[in-house]
Amino acid sequence: MKNSYKNQNIAFFLLFLSTLLIVVPVGLIVLVIIQKGLPAINWQFLSDMPRQGMRAGGIFPAIIGTVYLVVGAIMFALPIGLLSAIYLSEYSKDDLLTRLIKLAIVNLAGVPSVVYGLFGLALFVVFFKFGVSILSGSLTLGIMILPVIITTSREALESVPQSFREVSLSLGASKWQTIRHIVLPNAIPGILTGTILGLGRAAGETAPILFTVAAFYLPRLPKSVFDQAMALPYHLYVISTQVPNVDEKIRYGTAFVLLTLVLFMNLVAIIIRYKFRKKKKW
């Protein structure tokens, strides 16, 4: 009994230590960004156009460009990812081909973002002739987050008890009616989890937009999906590495805005997920 209690304490200590090793560095990074970036935050910084080669003015075009890209990526990836997940979990046969497809989707989630950027450049910018534009950037980001959405959505659908399907079918509902009215409503929290992960990755990536949409300096708002746009991740990279004599608080202020934007979008998605989870009866 004493050995079991001792082993339990050791396991608890190791788990607690592992948690600290993850939480503490992230917390310190966030604190540094807040401490050094908060003094730069004011209405002018958030609403003005950049001036003097991005050494003055605000970051409004970069904020709007980031929102456009994230919304465009989700609008493209979520429907396709959800439909693919429904097919893989509800309609496809459990054969070698299906298993290979599922394995390929999981592996695609680990492909470096720069590879997706080069793919988007070749496919959307050059082949489809969309040019360096919001459309090309959104589609590239959408393809990048598609494996994550497919994987999490499929797992959410498969987590719905099989008995729900059996009862629905026994009452005379078709397979699609069962999926639409029984399976999907109960899987929405898990689907939103994948959407949250996709939002965070799409908003924070630099390499894909570097090849497909990002403008170095563009003191105006885009007028169509075929225009270039500034984006916060690339803007932060540029003012940190390419533009000399930029005030430190501007760099950290930009990082603070990007961090806040990602957290806000995630918070909205988490609140929606929480409301759907409260409706679950299992």
Topology:
Elements: H1 2-37, H2 43-47, E1 50-51, E2 56-57, H3 60-91, H4 96-108, H5 113-127, H6 134-158, H7 162-170, H8 175-204, H9 207-212, H10 232-241, H11 248-279
Antiparallel strand pairs: 1-2
Helix pairs in contact: 1-11, 3-6, 3-8, 4-6, 5-6, 6-8, 7-8, 8-11, 10-11
Q: Would you mind describing this structure in some detail?
A:
The structure is a single chain. Helix content is 76%, strand content 1%. The protein has 282 residues and is mostly helical. The protein has a single domain, classed as Orthogonal Bundle (MetI-like fold), CATH 1.10.3720.10. A two-stranded antiparallel sheet has the order 1-2. The longest helix has 36 residues, at 2-37. It is globular.
Summarize the structure.
The chain is 76% helix and 1% strand. It is built from eleven helices and two strands.
